[in-house]
Amino acid sequence: MIPDWLAQDSSSVPLPAPSNWGRSGFVEKTIDNAAHFLKDTMVNETVARRNGLLQAIDPRVKLITVLAIIVSVSIMRSPIIIWGIYGFTLLLAVASSISLMFFIKRVWLFIPLFSAFIVIPALFNVVTPGDPVWTAFHLAHSYDFGPYHIPDTITVTRQGVLTAVTFIGRVSASVSLAVLLTLTTLWNDLLQALRVLKVPRIFILILGMTYRYIILLVHTVYDIHVARKSRTLHYGPTGSEQRWVASRMGYLLKKTYMISQDVHNAMLSRGFSGDVRTLTPSRIQGYDYAWCIFVLFICVFSIVLDRTLVPW
Amino acid sequence: MHIPDGYLSPQTYVPFYAFIIPYLGIAARKVSKSIRSRHVPLLALGAAFSFVIMMFNVPIPGGTTGHAVGGVIVAIILGPWAASIAVSIALIVQALLFGDGGITAIGANCFNMGVVISFVGYYVYKLISGDSEITSTRRWIAGAVSGYIALNAAAVIAGIEFGIQPMIASGADGHPLYAPYPLSIAVPAMAIEHLILFGFVEALVTALIIRYFQKTDQSLLTIYGGAK
Questions:
Q1: How far is B130 from chain A (nearest CA, A)?
Q2: Which residues from chain A sit within 8 angstroms of residue B179, using beta carbons?
Q3: Whether the complex's predicted ipTM surpasses the cut of 0.90
Q4: Do A206 and B44 touch (CB under 8 A)?
């Protein structure tokens, strides 16, 4: 026999989700964060297994060359060259079987878009004095508040535009290169590649374990919040919900500590003595040498061109 | 507070790398002395926890949510040396494997969020909690104050790192090439948002987690002291 409460129309039960002003609640946001993270991790693995230009390069060579381009971008001064490098990353994405729209979306959300937003005030003479290119508005007179000076005419300056274009270009080119590296390399290969930078083996072991336990803990966070959502008809007062979130963080920390003890025992039982051994890496191929020479050329050529356009 | 690539000039990020590489070596030796061979899984899991704690949304009055960095609670549980390594590893994994936080800025990020938050947080906590009982109210008040002060200290240092960029790296006509705002704007901008919002979230989370441990498992609050 079906109990009365189960026979009731479920539409009469208040649903938990949107809280104030139609925004989703903290439980839904955390579920979204965890789900997006897990999805992105799977997408990364899928892209890294495709056939493409960067996927074919030895991870050690790829790590060193991508770092070389990132460092080169960090010392450039000409926005033309920096945006040229950004264009180069788009070509690399296409050559690495990455959809251009997917790549642009992955790169620009969130850091470059945030950077573009925060740099807006730097366009104006209030922050970056210089040659006016566009007058925004006039004030009755200028104002001085301690170290801050607000002129009577607020203008966009040539120097401000140059600052913004250089800054956003550098951020987007650097983020694009980092995203290319992570998208086209399996995480395990990338960690092993760190050996080429003389990173100690024990540190690489910890990084690898960290990655694996991040996935485990994110799954746990997801499960905790889905379980909470499934038994929530309505959120309680903010204070009690804060205590609930903190208790789940505390629980996760306690669980983390217990897992670390279990993992340590498991490692000892398998003969772990603190000495870490890794598989012998594969040999670097001719293709990798060609890529090295190409990147070296790109870096040297772009830096020379940069210094020609914007001398020290 | 994760500084992306492009915000710091080489004049800034190179010295931070030069500091953080030997620092991690020294910290690893200190940790391996105090917690012996357990340090490998403990640091890995501590780093994973530091990464994941940022994923929690904490409800705050007004219907919105905030995030905690979580470095202070990790420092209180594992001690400042282990916490600074754990948070640094989390930041390195974020930068290298997930493209979050700049690769060139790894040294600065590890310093701000790993070293500063861990040490300031831990020692402010020790100063206030003193030799009080594990269940004492002083403990969670110490947690709240240390969370607030440590996060704000890290934010102000990040603000200083941004603010010196126009002074040390500008174009031929004086226009900034990296983070564009001077100290007079960058420091207050970083400080204000942490003083009025994120600092309180960190304080709240640290205090509530300590209270949770006081009620459920007090042994976790003695791990660092007991291991020494």
A1: 22
A2: 167
A3: no
A4: yes
| Radius of gyration (C-alpha) of chain A in whole angstroms | 26
Contact check, Cβ <8 Å, A178/B43: no
Q: What is the pLDDT of residues B20-75, one digit of tens each?
A: 999 998 988 888 776 556 677 888 888 888 888 888 888 887 767 778 888 899 89
**Domains detected in chain B:** 10-227 (1.10.1760.20)
The answer to whether the CB of A98 falls within 8 A of the CB of A53 is no
**pLDDT digit string (tens) for A46-103?**
999 999 999 999 999 999 999 999 999 999 999 999 999 999 999 999 999 999 999 9
**3-state secondary structure at position A135:** strand
Touching A: B residues 13-42, CB under 8 Å: 13, 24, 28, 37-38, 40-42
Which of B45, B106, B181 is the best substitution to test chain A (most A C-beta atoms within 10 A)? B45
- For the stretch A263-266, contacts whose Cβ atoms lie closer than 8 Å and that sit 24 or more positions apart, written own/partner, are A263/A209, A263/B41, A263/B44, A263/B45, A264/B37, A264/B38, A264/B40, A264/B41, A264/B42
